[in-house]
Amino acid sequence: MKGLNLALGAAGLAAFLALGEAVPRFGLVKEAYFPPTSRIAGAFADELAEGAFWTALGDTLTGWALGLALAVGAGIVVGVVVSVVPHLRQATASTIEFLRPIPSIALIPLAVLLYGTELRSVLLLVVYASFWQILIQVLYGVQDVDPVAEETARSYGLGTWARVRHVLWPTALPYVMTGVRLAAAVALILAITAELVIGAPGLGARIAVAQTSQAVPEMYALIVVTGLLGLLINVGARTVERRALAWHQSVRGEVAV
Description:
- Helix 3 runs parallel beside helix 6 (119-143), helix 5 packs across helix 6 (119-143) and helix 9 packs antiparallel against helix 10.
- By secondary structure, this protein is mainly alpha-helical.
- The chain is globular and about 75 Å long.
- The protein has 11 helices and no strands.
């Protein structure tokens, strides 16, 4: 079954690439706006040979990794504290519901005003967008704790942090890992967007330069790079999730299937 899925995936990718080659060749779209796959592949190879490309890739990954790490740490800590401190969840509910829907893109003027085109501008947007993915999942995870297990832990005299470690955390961990996987994708989107709009160093800024200089094949090649990067991040996040939750029923059932 796995081999069949891989074969079907490869066939679908080959068909997509062939379509991308044929559409401009037959004049359905202008090559100036959408180059054939072969030209994009050539530009992709040229990009890989340039040191500036790898520098830009490193800048993007730095902003993504730092922002994601800060968001995960802050989201877990805030989520646990809000959940275990009496009445704090109710006191913060309205504030969370007010701040969470604010698009991170709306903070771009603030980021530019505070930090210009520095890495900190990227981090501000990445952390803000990713933080909510983690926090909400932690809150949902804590709500799913079995009341019987919670009362049993109390009856055995476990303190607050012992209950967090042995009761709350194992229940919330699947939710946390889901939040991390979602936040990883959101962090990449915001990192590229910040670089594209603000001009912070990275792949997004390189895409903007290619677009303004009419280097269309190079622009598409860089877009392909961002897509591949997103794919790798998603695969990596799923791998980490499966390993961290190897004991959980959902993962054991997935492996069994």
